[in-house]
Amino acid sequence: MPSTLLGLLYNARAILVRSLLWSRKGQGY
């Protein structure tokens, strides 16, 4: 598995987690 693909995967996961956390914070959970 190329390192670039791995980096993209990690970036995508980080963005997803961040957006989830932000949406949760916005709803006041």
Structural summary, described in words:
0% of the residues are buried. The termini are far apart. The protein is mostly helical and 29 residues long. It has one helix and no strands.
How is this structure best summarized?
The protein has one helix at 3-27. The longest helix has 25 residues, at 3-27.
| Average of the residue pLDDT scores | 85
Could you give the order of the helices and strands? Answer: H
Topology, number of strands: 0
Cα distance spanning the termini: 38 Å
Return Rg in Å.
13 Å
Structural category? mainly alpha
Q: What is the count of DSSP helices, taking H or I runs of 4+ residues? A: 1
SS strand fraction: under 5%
Q: Which key features would you list for this structure?
A:
86% helix, single chain, 29 residues, mainly alpha
Please render the helix and strand layout as text.
Layout: H1 3-27
